[in-house]
Write a structure and sequence with these properties.
Length: about 240
């Protein structure tokens, strides 16, 4: 069981100041140093900016030193490069992967949700999205997780929440934060460095390549990526847990 602690650092449009983001990280670090000292703490950061702000870096360093594990999205800028803090080495960064049959038109017009989709055990069934940020020299990309056409809550009108298909590394990062939470449940003393090493060791390699991917329109698009797009590969919860004693 986990307790989710929402910490709001951005406005309703998804933008904000680095100083506010840094203060949010510091707040979680203070919880870890105080009332949550006996519990593992994981931060998910589905956000980023073009450079590593000094205040954010200091806050992340403090949080990790206190025992917090920080997971962040790689960014949605494609070849332009990763966003920060995801690209910062001590942070566990996550690229966005997709399933090649996510809009597969099966017989009778059924989509994948009415099919017997296999567990993700082979890289041939998956791809890296074209929007997922690639790692430039000096940037650290760790693993990939589902970030294409992810069903999640979506506010359509003020006060009304529905569900919608969303794509982005912001959807991929929470998958890995959840996996890390399971890892800490198994080993509460897990550190950020050990968690990152375990995730990379457990990942299914997803080498550079191309896939034919069905689109919602019924068309097939050939999507390609390089070695700078995948990190160690596609991570799954069961594989990650095998790396934790």
């Amino acid at each position: 069981m986990v307790t989710i602690i929402p910490v709001k650092v951005l406005n309703q449009n998804g933008s904000g100041w680095s100083s506010v983001v840094a203060r949010g990280i510091e707040y979680v670090a203070e919880l870890k140093e105080g009332p949550l000292a006996a519990y593992p703490v994981v931060i998910n950061m589905s956000l980023g900016g073009p450079e590593l702000d000094a205040m954010e870096k200091a806050a992340i360093d403090r949080a990790i030193s206190a025992g917090v594990i920080v997971v962040a999205s790689a960014g949605n800028e494609g070849e332009t490069g990763m966003g920060y803090p995801g690209a910062y080495s001590p942070v566990i960064s996550v690229a966005a992967s997709g399933y090649v049959g996510e809009w597969y038109p099966a017989a009778g017009g059924a989509w994948w949700y009415q099919m017997n989709v296999l567990e993700p055990t082979t890289s041939a069934e998956f791809y890296i999205t074209d929007f997922s940020s690639r790692a430039l020299p000096g940037q650290d990309l760790d693993v990939a997780a589902p970030g294409s056409w992810i069903v999640g809550p979506y506010q359509v009108n003020s006060g009304q929440t529905s569900y919608y298909f969303l794509g982005g590394t912001s959807m991929a990062s929470p998958h890995v934060a959840g996996i890390v939470a399971l890892m800490t449940e198994k080993f509460p003393g897990l550190t950020a460095a050990v968690a990152e090493t375990a995730l990379e060791a457990a990942a299914i390699p997803l080498p550079a390549g191309c896939r034919n991917v069905y689109q919602s329109s019924g068309a097939i698009e050939n999507i390609c990526w390089g070695a700078d797009a995948t990190g160690a590969g596609l991570i799954t919860a069961d594989a990650a847990l095998t790396k934790i004693p």
